[in-house]
# Entry
Amino acid sequence: MPITGQKVIEPDARVVDAFQNIGYSLEAALADLIDNSIDAGAKRVLVRFVRTDNELHSLDVVDNGRGMNDAEIDRAMKFGGQRTYQTGDLGMYGMGLKAASLSQADNLTVISRANRSIAVGRRWQAKEARRGWQCDVVSGQFADEALDVALNGFDLSHGTIVRWDQVRDFRKASGRVDAYIQRIRNTLTVHLGLQLHRFLTGDKPRLEILVNTLNVQTGQVSPDFKVTPLDPFNYSHPGSRKYPKEFHVAIPQVGDLACHAHIWPARTKEACYKLGGGSVARRQGFYFYRNDRLLQAGGWNNYREDGEPHLSLARVAIDLPQRFQSFFSVRFNKAAVDAPRSFVDALEHAKSSDGTTFPEFVERAQVVYRSKPERKLDPVFAPGRGIRAAVAETRYDH
# Structure
């Protein structure tokens, strides 16, 4: 094909409208922001709902990560801005901050301070972006003061605030703020506790996530609510002997992929099985992880029909190695993974070290689901000597 030259074609500023309808839920958008906090080395993250008595005003995500200087914050706020990701980073496309934020709010403000640097701030207003990518520069003094207040409980001189104003979902809270916050907090803590459970687990977890509210009319701050881990494989005992098993899935031209297959005990009531409530049948299937971050929580990726009740106890953990991350397609909002047909076909021939096939694992999970619970027998006591005849007759007479 003959080429006579090249030219730069700038994107239309109305591309902002696409980000506002990109398909994030509120909790998935916040998880994407916290991914950035983790990549910045944060050990503590605060999600704060800012309110009045009758309205929700804004939302802040505060972290004690390494922060950004002037050049770094410009790069972070650039649409399509790329940075060099390290092997263990959670970021992927360089768009999460903007896409996640504008999917929920009309205004995005980022204020940050790196160690031994001055505080900096930028603000995207959707209406200004549409007029030609005009990004506001926040006053350094305002940024410095805002960080001093926000980081008060962090005891550090560096960190970042991501602030959302004009959050579209907050319109639902008008006149009933308490009920809305209760509902969204429950949804948020389940989602974050599940997606980031490997970061939240252990005596010394890598991350602490807190949620609270600030009433700007009264100055009152609610007690911190700590997000607890929800590990989908944290059962007290397996549902079948010799499980879990590791299956090796041989994918042509890519390599072997390890799949850790688990069978939950039948009729369990444990919180990590229910994962926040709702239908447990939708929680069966594959759990894909990338760098310890959960990307997909259930579903069979066309290997089986999703939601089949008899497979409710079957869960499979898959950590995606670096070389597989171009083979599997990770959704933009990090909420699901698309698997090629060759993965589905390879599962039919996957085996564990003891020769068990993956289809046999699926069959075993169905058998355990249909099994009857063990009958609990009354405790057996050794017979005693009984009551002496004279005592028994006296008791009978009375």
About this structure: The first helix runs from residue 15 to 19. The first strand starts at residue 44 and ends at 51. Residues 52 and 219 are 10 Å apart (CA to CA).
